[in-house]
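Quick one, tokens below:
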């Protein structure tokens, strides 16, 4: 199926005119209001700097600018048009979320993904799908960036984050990714949003008993680079039961792998997706306001009762004669024997040429440059809530305990108040803000919560200027010769 929008160019042009008309119609109050702050060095200070130019970063930047926060800068380590996961390690054919999911457009209907899809590919194509194809979702994000004019500085990686002396500003250290030995540069901001995706809490991780036993070139993570062409004719073992495991298995098989054995520890593959039942406005909007015990229990439920792979990924994998699925089969022993990898499970032994681990991510503040300075200074869930023993989860306890606007909370407010200027708009927010919070199914409510937290903080910081501004305002709204000689009353 083509991802080319040109056959519907006239319809798309009509939609783009409608976008502009709706933006003009909804522009009120349409006024930039944040007072700039000065740095002693004369360096520019951004109101908000967003790390990550994928869907979450674009949604946040657009919404902030619509709320009158003009100086918003987005940085992304990838080249323009390649931000996010959709042309990287996302290897599914279609998105998991239903096609009518909205939110990134901040209430502007013509900027929504459904409107773009219909304009580009036609009503018949829209009616034929229940999920948007992954390449077409990326095409939408590129179009969204162009239509909104969100400023993204590509090929720019964040290599450090710390407070400026005084704690009222943040220093974001960056380096160009498209130039060898590029010098480090510092950007200053009042607030920083970490829109860094699923692994924004730390890193993708291969279990240690596997990584330590196998030659590095013979084991891959599903969310990292994989040379699929080089695995043609090879026996590949896949560990994991989720969508990523099946998606990667399908790509391996399509590239000619000799065999793919997909193993997972659960005795049965999940068939029910519990995420669907909580996709209602009360949950999505107000989860962050629930008590700690309820939020913990909901997240613990999703940790235990995981969602199944997608139907199309499952069916496609099983359409290959050289694919096999093994339930109740954790890899209890992994050994390298020459060029072969010997894997033992409770039910069978396997010999593979390559391993692929769809084993998710871990919370690790030292694994990411932008988190390193935060690790010792922020509250985590284990600092705020002790669950009953039956509900204990060491992994969940490491997630940050966030404030109402996704801001980190300091362990020591007197020393580390600066962390409240950093907002975790990534998967690390899931325990505090909900399992859908920064996915496309949660943007409708999560973006407004993030923006509200930032604009509230900015307004409080300049409240001392409010009364002097009122007292000094002298622009006449009523003009008439009958009023000549009438004095404007002095402020009370």
């Amino acid at each position: 199926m083509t991802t080319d929008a040109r056959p519907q160019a006239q319809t798309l042009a009509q939609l783009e005119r409608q976008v502009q008309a709706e933006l003009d119609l909804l522009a009120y109050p349409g006024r930039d209001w944040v007072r700039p702050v000065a740095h002693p060095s004369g360096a520019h200070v951004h109101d908000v700097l967003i790390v990550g130019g994928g869907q979450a970063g674009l949604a946040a930047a657009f919404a902030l600018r619509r709320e009158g926060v003009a100086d918003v800068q987005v940085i992304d380590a990838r080249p323009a048009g390649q931000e996010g996961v959709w042309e990287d390690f996302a290897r599914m054919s279609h998105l998991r979320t239903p096609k009518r999911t909205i939110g990134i457009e901040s209430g502007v209907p013509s900027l929504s993904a459904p409107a773009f899809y219909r304009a580009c590919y036609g009503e018949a194509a829209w009616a034929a799908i229940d999920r948007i194809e992954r390449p077409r979702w990326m095409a939408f994000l590129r179009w969204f960036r162009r239509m909104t004019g969100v400023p993204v500085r590509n090929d720019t990686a964040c290599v450090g984050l710390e407070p400026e002396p005084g704690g009222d500003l943040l220093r974001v250290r960056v380096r160009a990714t498209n130039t060898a030995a590029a010098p480090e540069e510092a950007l200053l901001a009042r607030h920083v949003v970490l829109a860094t995706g699923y692994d924004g809490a730390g890193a993708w991780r291969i279990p240690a008993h596997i990584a330590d036993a196998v030659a590095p070139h013979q084991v891959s993570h599903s969310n990292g680079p994989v040379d699929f062409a080089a695995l043609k004719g090879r026996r590949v073992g896949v560990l994991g039961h989720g969508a990523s495991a099946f998606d990667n298995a399908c790509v391996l098989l399509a590239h000619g792998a000799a065999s793919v054995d997909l193993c997972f520890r659960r005795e049965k593959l999940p068939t029910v997706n519990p995420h669907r039942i909580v996709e209602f406005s009360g949950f999505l909007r107000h989860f962050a306001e629930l008590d700690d015990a309820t939020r913990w229990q909901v997240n613990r439920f999703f940790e235990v009762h995981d969602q199944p792979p997608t139907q199309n990924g499952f069916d496609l994998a099983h359409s290959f004669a050289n694919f096999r699925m093994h339930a109740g089969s954790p890899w209890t022993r992994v050994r390298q024997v020459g060029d072969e990898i010997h894997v033992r499970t409770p039910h069978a032994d396997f010999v593979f040429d390559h391993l692929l681990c769809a084993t998710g991510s871990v919370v690790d503040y030292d694994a990411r440059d932008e988190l390193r300075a935060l690790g010792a200074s922020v509250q985590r869930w284990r600092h705020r809530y002790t669950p009953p023993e039956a509900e204990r989860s060491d992994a969940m306890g490491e997630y940050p305990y966030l404030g109402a606007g996704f801001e980190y909370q300091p362990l020591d407010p007197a020393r580390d108040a600066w962390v409240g200027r950093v907002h975790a708009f990534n998967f690390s927010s899931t325990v505090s803000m909900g399992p859908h919070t920064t996915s496309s199914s949660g943007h409708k409510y999560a973006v407004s919560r993030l923006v509200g937290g930032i604009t509230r903080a900015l307004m409080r910081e300049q409240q001392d200027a409010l009364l002097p501004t009122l007292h000094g305002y002298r622009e006449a709204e009523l003009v008439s010769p009958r009023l000549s000689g009438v004095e404007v009353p002095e402020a009370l």
